[in-house]
Structure prediction request, 305 residues.
Amino acid sequence: MGAGKNMANSKLAVVLSKDRPGQSEHEILERKILGGLEGRHDLEVTVLPHLYDLANDGPGMEFLRSVGGDLVVLTWLYPRSAYWVLDANGVKGRLGPTISLAEEEIDVPGNPGERAIWCLDLRNQKRPDPFLKEINRIASLAVEPATVAAGQINGRPNWIDEPTAPRWYPVIDFSRCGNCLECLNFCLFGVFGTDADERPIVEQPDACRSGCPACSRICPEGAIMFPQHGDPAIAGDPRISPKDLKLDLSQLFRDSDPLQIAEAERRRALEERERQSRQTAEKPSELPRKGSLDDLVDRIDDMDL
Ligand code: SF4
Ligand code: SF4
Prediction:
């Protein structure tokens, strides 16, 4: 990463957040998009690992928080999920309208006076052209110029390498949250807490049990997302909202009773945690047993060093 603050006038900040490793088709698309952006001196392009996996205090989020002005973010997530992941990590703004937004998102979250965060969903298109066209369209608007803590060098993107591993935690959509705190009461793993205004926050994201999406099923507003879940209703598809569409929660999920499913998921997560604790307790100590330690001392004494 280059050093120094680059107050590049009339440049637009573009961030490409890569998919998790192992998706060769996705890597090809990422490379093509970056190839199409190369040499663009009207852009500040930065490449990051998968947005959802970045640590709050890691270089990726630190970089994102440092960007001033409008920001285009290309991710392998629903724009709604990407926007609220950013928000939870202190990257604030209003969601700018892009080709990736559904009609249901016309009333986009955020204050009209705030800088725009334009989220593009890389899962929507297999070719780079629609994304490049959309970036050109956004760049041609009267954007707030980027202030980026590390600019690209010779028209090449700035790569931020942060070691990441797949994470799993809830993301709250505050444009929907009704502040009932049911999530806080339901989760037995201490994931949720409250802020100074008594609003729910994801206080300990990594305490969430991998694969458990239970609280997203009990949230009466459909405000809790797990961006990597296979079911769009849980991963952040904006077209599915019990509040806006006046749906019964039971209609949201393919299975019949969301509360029962959530309770079963929570029970499974508890059992898994107990199984893991038992395994840890049963694991033989890696320290030498007293007998072997005595043998070792005796052997060293015998060596007469
Ligand atoms: S259950 Fe849903 S609506 Fe209620 S506080 Fe939690 S996130 Fe907000
Ligand atoms: S998914 Fe389960 S473990 Fe994770 S926050 Fe929700 S209830 Fe808690």
About this structure: The beta strands are 12-17, 43-48, 71-75, 94-96, 116-121, 158-159, 171-172, 192-194, 200-202, 224-225.
